[in-house]
């Protein structure tokens, strides 16, 4: 097992964007993490109320200003068009709805998002729901020919998407366990590109004449997160959904997105952040795999963050925050960090250590975390606690069998057994 891991690490890239990458534990170096329970006035958090009313808002503001940027609130002119009001799907096991969410008054513009929702046909009360933020249009993410094909970005315009036979989520797994499933495509909100601000939702909010956001204004991750909140705006109106039991899930940069979304929008009752890595759940001060410098390099993903975040590219020890504090913002709500054993670039151990460092906040609420155990081998499914961690055997992906773990986590913490 150890020989296999070492061999795979040796085959990983050691130079990305001209910046060295470390995969050697002996070279990680020493670091000191900020205390999530130490308030800006130098006093320690004394109670759950003190955390919720004082320290939590401080940390949230730090992430808004220094990393993700602060997006706008709910737009006054937003509207919903339920163009599929309830159609049997999956051989009658589920009822499908499709909703077009218009972000602006101009319904002919590109600023709209399609939401597909499935609930169990035999549900006798509003259903709990997993809302997935997908890299693919809904028609490509789910094997259901009744889904509207959707659109993708091309040269600054949205064009019809082609259907695909790969990467499908087995929605029936969720339905058979009494859990609804919904999906939105992140490209409907903002293009995942360096010039995406010219075409996505952020373009609507740019100051007159501006071509880029200000230093602590929102990056693409905050834009995608904003879109998830608009999906929740609709879900709160749908009587077939229990809006108090909505979990969100995303992978990689979308894992970062759902982690940030759950932190800033407490309407989401649970987060499943998959392989979120650097600038997500993995500790930035731990020099292993991808780093802030890799993330913010102008040839890579600088557009995903507030411009102010770039000042920490080579000064991570000067950051007033780290990922354990982002994780702590979820308390007392359930959070599952899902990683892969060979995903060295995303540093699965760094995510585990971050969960341990966030544990004091969950302890404040009397809630279980991963504990003090050393880093565990893959496929240990005993850490599905309120602050949970699961690492599959494999790399940077969500495997079909991971969904079984997601379902167990949802059923356990939504008390659906």
TrEMBL record:
Residues 215-366 form the 4-O-methyl-glucuronoyl methylesterase-like domain. Transmembrane segments: none annotated. The keyword Lipoprotein does not apply. GO terms for molecular function: carboxylic ester hydrolase activity. It holds the Pfam family GCE_fung. Keywords: Hydrolase, Serine esterase, Signal. This is Acetylxylan esterase. The lineage of its organism: Bacteria, Pseudomonadati, Bacteroidota, Cytophagia, Cytophagales.
């Amino acid at each position: 097992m150890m020989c296999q891991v070492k061999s795979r690490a040796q085959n990983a890239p050691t130079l990305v964007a001209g910046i060295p990458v470390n995969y050697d534990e002996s070279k990680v170096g020493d670091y000191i993490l900020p205390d999530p329970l130490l308030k800006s006035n130098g006093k320690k958090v004394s109670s759950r109320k003190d955390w919720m009313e004082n320290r939590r808002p401080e940390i949230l503001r730090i992430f808004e200003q220094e990393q993700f940027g602060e997006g706008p609130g709910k737009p006054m002119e937003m509207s919903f068009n339920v163009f599929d009001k309830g159609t049997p799907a999956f051989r009658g096991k589920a009822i499908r709805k499709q909703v077009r969410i218009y972000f602006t008054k101009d319904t002919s513009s590109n600023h709209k998002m399609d939401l597909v929702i499935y609930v169990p046909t035999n549900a006798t009360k509003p259903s709990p729901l997993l809302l997935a933020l997908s890299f693919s249009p809904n028609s490509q993410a789910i094997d259901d020919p009744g889904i509207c094909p959707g659109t993708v970005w091309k040269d600054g315009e949205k064009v019809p998407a082609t259907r695909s036979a790969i990467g499908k989520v087995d929605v029936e797994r969720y339905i058979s366990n009494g859990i609804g499933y919904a999906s939105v495509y992140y490209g409907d909100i903002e293009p995942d590109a360096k010039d995406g601000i010219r075409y996505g939702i952020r373009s609507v909010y740019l100051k007159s004449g501006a071509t880029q956001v200000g230093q602590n204004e929102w990056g693409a991750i905050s834009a995608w997160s904003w879109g998830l909140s608009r999906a929740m705006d609709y879900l709160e109106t749908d009587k077939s959904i229990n809006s108090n039991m909505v979990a969100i899930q995303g992978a990689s940069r979308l894992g970062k997105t759902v982690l940030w979304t759950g932190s800033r929008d407490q309407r989401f009752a649970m987060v499943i952040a998959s392989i979120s890595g650097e600038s997500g759940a993995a500790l930035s001060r731990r020099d292993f795999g991808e780093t802030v410098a890799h993330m913010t390099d102008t040839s890579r993903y600088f557009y995903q963050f507030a411009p102010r975040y770039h000042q920490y590219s080579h000064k991570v020890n000067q950051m007033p925050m780290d990922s354990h504090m982002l994780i702590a913002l979820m308390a007392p709500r359930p959070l599952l960090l899902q990683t892969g054993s060979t995903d060295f670039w995303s540093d699965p151990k760094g995510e585990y250590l971050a969960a341990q460092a966030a544990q004091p906040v969950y302890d404040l609420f009397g809630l279980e975390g991963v504990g003090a155990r050393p880093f565990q081998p893959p496929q240990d499914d005993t850490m599905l606690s309120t602050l949970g961690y699961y690492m599959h055997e494999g790399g940077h992906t969500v495997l079909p069998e991971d969904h079984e773990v997601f379902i167990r986590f949802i059923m356990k913490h939504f008390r659906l057994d």
